[in-house]
Each structure stands twice: as structure tokens, then as C-alpha cells.
Amino acid sequence: MPFFLLMARFVHSLFRSQRQLALENLALRQQVVMLRQSVKKPRPSVADKLFWLIFSRYMNGWRKMLHGLHPDTVVRWHRQGFRLYWRWKSRGQKPGRSAIDPAIRKLIREMQVANIGRGAPRIHGELLKLGIDISQATVSKYMVHQQKPPSQTWRTFLENHADCLVGIDFFTVPTATFRILYVFIVLSHHRRHVAHFNVTEHPTAQWTSQQLTEAFSFDSAPQYLLRDRDAIYGEAARRRIKSLGIEEVVSAPRSPWQNPYCERVIGSIRRECLDHVIVMNERHLRRILREYVDYYHTCRTHLSLNKDPPETRAVEPPEFGIITAIPRDGGLHHRYARVAA
Fold first, then answer.
1. In the chain, domain spans
2. Which contacts (CB < 8 Å, 24+ apart) does range 235-240 have?
3. Is the pLDDT of residue 152 over 60?
């Protein structure tokens, strides 16, 4: 029954006799008994709840008048209303940080797809160079997370002399005709700069000593040179190192972690470049490595360099123009720069 009709009947009942009210009350109670036998659980409307809440506030003994509901139900309605009221009264502005621009979210995913092996730290470094100031956690949040093993960590040593340290090492690369090529690499520890590299099919101690001469002149030689115990570093190579005024630091047997920077740059070359191409010959491999080393020096952000390349890269603020992807290494990687529209 609508609430206003119920109130109208209540006002009309005020002018009836006591006998009529008693008979009408008896008839209503009989109908309630009939309904309780046929309906196990009544479904009160919002108006019904409001009526009983108001009625229980101003009427003594209202619990005895309930026949279709349990008194605790009315109490529960009141508590629910209390919570809703204070929730509405305590509402404020929408909490949390401001939403990230959808264009930036799209750019983060495009960088992840277009660049082999890039994680949140390196993408974050690229965004900082584009003048987009967001946190690394935000970058990680909007990346597409894939099931893959965590990247390895690298132990460091001789940190007090990083600016005067270089490391040298060899690694092998198979060709399309199943020949094995040897790559010799010289890495400066200070800015992770690849000072020199070369490729040969038949490495010798004499060839290695010649590479050291090409890598360093007498006035630019480092103080310390870190190498492993490979037999390729024969007497000729050791004499050349000594003649350049360099002190050798030889790692322990089977301890690649003692030459971590060289091992890491070799791993980066493999994961980000060589694992995705087929090498034809020495000339082809030199060209591939030359392109990757140029990208490594000028574009690729490094965690150990505060997310800056070995050759410092200027930050490009938004007023420089729109963001453009510049392919590097045949499209394996991209440099993102701002250009005028």
C-alpha cells in the first residue's frame, strides 16, 4: 500500500469510534496471520522501511505491533541507513593520483614491444630523456607483464678505481656456414664505454697485442687492465700490456663474476643484437657490431649511469615537438626523440 494512502487512512481513523477501530484492528491482524502462512519472507520496499524507521522513533511499544517483520530487522535497517548517511556526508574528492595520459600509456607499451629485452628501468630512462616525468613504478604498472625469469645481478669490485679500469674479453659468434668468429672487446669501466672491438677467425697472442695497441695510445692507457686466464693472452700480449704502462689484474680461475662489466656488455650484445640476426662473415659481423656499439654509446640508457648513455644525452622537453621513433640496428631498437611538427 502506498505510504501517502496509509497516512490518509490513519488521519481518517482518528475520527472513528473505539469499537470500529478495534474491529478493524482485529481484521488486519487476521490478514497478517494469513499472509505469514503463505509468505515465508516478506520483501519490504524503501517506503516500508522508511515508515517503520520513523514509526519506531516516535511510538512506544512498537515492537509488539510487528507481525510481518522481526524487530531486529528494523534495527538493522536503521544501522544501514546510519552508515549510508555518514558515508554520503563524508564524501570528498576522488582519492589517489591523477590519471596518466593515455598517450603515455600507449607509448610505454609501444616501447616495450618495439625494443628487445627492455624492462621498466630502461623504458623509464628513455621517457626521462623525452621530458616525461613519471615514476618507474608507473612505467612498470602500465607495461604488459610476461612470464620470464628475473634478470641476473652482477657483482662489482674495485669500485674505488673504476675511472682507471678497463676490462678485456673474448666471445664467440657462429656464422651461417657454421664457422666460429672471435670477437675481442675492450670496455672502459668509468662510463661503460666500448673503447675498441675487432673480429677474427684465428685469434693469436700477436693479434691480441696489436688490438691493445690500437685501443690505447701511450697517453691514454688506463692504470689497470682486468682479464681472465685465457691462454690467448700469451707472452706477446703481456709484454705489450707492460710496455703501455698498464698493470694487469688477473681474475681467479672459473670466476667470470670478477670481470662483471665485460661479461654484462657481452650479454647485452647477445640478447639485444646477435640473438636476433644471422651472421654471414667477418665483414658482416663488424658492421652489425659497429651499428650496435654506436646505438649503445649514444642512445641506450644505462642503469649504472643514472639512466644516461655513455655519451651523455640531453633531455628533450615537451616544447621541442612531438615524439618520433627512430629505428636503430635494423629496427631491433629505437631511439625516441622530439621533432618539430
1. 3-85, 103-151+311-339, 159-305
2. 235/205, 236/205, 236/206, 236/208, 236/209, 237/205, 237/208, 237/209, 237/212, 239/209, 240/209, 240/212, 240/213
3. no
